[in-house]
Amino acid sequence: MENNLKNILVRIDKLEKAVFRTGKKTTPILVDSFTGPKGGILMLISRKFFDAKRSLEEIHEKLDKSDYRYKKIVVYTTLKRLSAQKGPLVVLTEQGQKVYVKRK
To answer: 27-102 — its CATH code?
Structure first.
């Protein structure tokens, strides 16, 4: 009976830690996650490509050179999603053209 109670308490502790996490939430970029158009852009972020402002043309060319071959509309949609409110990128408009840079 006592052993069962200890098991239940251990399980409750694990659940509480999972649900009521404290501290800064971070999402690490894993090497295995570089698949698909999102993975290609995350790979460019990890290589500090977005430390400077980049246009859609530059991003599409760099992805193509890195063997991520997608249509521009697919890259644009992915950039749009990654530049959402809490995403890793920011979209700016310069001279009527959208440019993307890493969020600080």
So the answer is: 1.10.10.10
